[in-house]
Amino acid sequence: MSDPWREPFSFSEDGASPRCYLRLPSDKLKTLGLKEGANTFTFSVTTKYQGTTTCEAMVYLWHHSDKIVVSDVDGTITRSDVYGQVLPLFGQDWSQSGVAQLFSDIGHNGYRFIYLSARAIGQSKLTRDYLRNIRQGQRSLPDGPLLLNPSSLVRAFHREVIMKNPQEFKIAALRDIGSLFVEDLKTGPYYAGFGNRLTDVITYVDVGVPKSHIFTINPTGELRHEFIRTFKSSYTALTELIDQFFPPRDDVDTALPVQYNQFHYWRAPLPNLDFDT
After folding, report:
1. Contact assessment for residue 99 and residue 106, using Cβ atoms and an 8 Å cutoff
2. Sequence-separated (6 or more) residues with CB below 8 Å from residue 113
3. First CA to last CA distance, the chain
4. What is the torsional sign of CA 238, 243, 245, 250?
5. Strand partners, 72
6. 116 forms bridges with which residues in the sheet?
7. Among 179, 177, 156, 180, which Cα is nearest to 168's?
8. Confidence category of residue 188, pLDDT binned at 50, 70, 90
9. Which of 93, 69, 90 minimizes the C-alpha distance to 80?
10. What sign does the dihedral 244-245-247-253 (CA atoms) show?
11. Distance from C-alpha of 134 to C-alpha of 130, rounded to nearest angstrom
12. Is 213 in contact with 203 (CB distance < 8 Å)?
C-alpha cells in the first residue's frame, strides 16, 4: 500500500540524480496543527550502518491577505556577492548598514519577509544561521522563509557567476509561492522587493511586485530605484519614511488591492513637469 504522505520522485536537471520532494495537499496540512508563523519539522533517515540522520525544515503559516517583501541575500543584505559569503565565516560582519533596522521596522508594520538567494541548497544552514545572527544595535532581521537554489554548489555557482541567469530559479520559486494565495487579490501577495542586480529587478517585475516598490542597492550602501533614476537613498534614510512606503497593515484595508487602499488611492498625484522650457 502506498504511503499517502509521499509524492513520487522527481529528478535533477541532468536527469541522473533522484531527489524526493513532499508537497502536502490542504487536507493533510490541516491535520498538522500548524500555528501562525514558523513551524519546525524534522525528517529522519535510519540506515543499518550509518544510524539516523536528521534534517530540519520550516513550514510557515500565513494569512491569505498578507503582503510579502522579498529580499535577495548576497549584495543586498550583505555588502557584496562574494565577500558576503566568505567573510562571515571568519567572524566579520559584512552586512549593509541599516538593513536590520529597516527590515525590522517593515516587519513591525505587518509585512511578511521572504529571503531569496541563488546559493545552493547545501548552504541552507549556513545562510539561515547568518541571517539569524545579524545584529545592528538592538535590531535583527525579521524571521521568514529562506529559498535557495535546489541545485548543487557547482551548478548554483555556474548559473549565477558564469551563465548570469539566477532569475530563472528565483522567478519559478516566487511564482510557486504566489500561486498559494487567493486569485481575487489582483495585485498578488508581493508588495516590495530589494535586490542588487538587474536580474533581481527582472524577477520582481515578472512575479508582480509593483514597480514603485522595487529597490536596488550597491556595495557603497546607495539605494536606487530602477524606474526612477533620480531616486537616491539608503536603508537608513528609507527607515525615516517607513510609514509612507510601508504603511502599517492595521491602517489599510487588507481586502482591497494595494492601489485602492487609503494610502495610495487618496494620495495626491505627482505634478506634470515640463523639462523642455
Report:
1. no
2. 68, 69, 70, 71, 103, 106, 107, 141, 142, 143, 144
3. 79
4. positive
5. 116
6. 72, 147
7. 156
8. confident
9. 93
10. positive
11. 6
12. no
Report which of 41, 36, 26, 40 is spatially closest to residue 66, judged by C-alpha positions. Answer: 36
pLDDT reading at 12 higher than 60: no
User: Nearest 5°: phi and psi at 73?
Assistant: -105, -65
pTM, 2 dp: 0.78
Q: What is the pLDDT of residues 149-183, one digit of tens each?
A: 875 444 544 444 444 556 778 898 899 899 888 66
Which pLDDT score, from 0 to 100, does residue 161 have? 44
Total residue count of the chain as it appears in this document: 277
Whether the per-residue pLDDT at 193 is higher than 80: the answer is: yes
Query: Has residue 269 got a pLDDT over 50?
Result: yes
